[in-house]
Here is the input.
Amino acid sequence: MMTRTVIIILCSSLLFLSCNNDRKSFLFDGETLDNWKIIVENPDVEPGNLFWVADGSIQTSGQPNGYIRTINSYSNYKLHVEWRWTETPTNSGVLLHVQGKDVIWPLCIECQLKHEHAGDIVLIGVGAGVTSQETTYLVDSEETWYKIIPKFDEVSEHEPGQWNSYDITSMNGEIRVVVNGVLQHTGSMMTLTEGAIALQAEGSPMQFRNIYLETL
Here is the structure.
């Protein structure tokens, strides 16, 4: 009787782990850019010279401005992204809920990757909005087409050249942003709750790896 009980418990545990694994989707397979699309500011630049794969990571030269986005749209997930700077760190970002046409500054909600500002939230495009710490932020003019909402805590990034991690949860209009295990932002009532996910090129060379999401 005891043996049967143990077997039942172990099977239940394995089933639970299997369910969790079923919810995890790798957006980057470590070898190709299948299911991604590269957007480049300068049409004379070959997209493959802005983003490419090497050593199991997505590499970018950082110039000219652009981004690589998923072909599919996503909602209600926990996103994990790792990044590091390979030269002098400058600017980049993880774009969530990307909407509309493939323009350089799409309608979206950005989790900032600018050096020493990882954890800031940036609203890009008319209609992007979120409520944070009882204040509602909304981009409502083409003239002021973005708003920056600073992170909660001191810098939690590692030294340039070391790998960092973002864990970003988006669920029913709420957002939670964690940088290297430190909670840097929360928000609610996001006006954008579904769309593509993108990684920016905006300054200098960097790498991305271990990009996956868990559906919630």
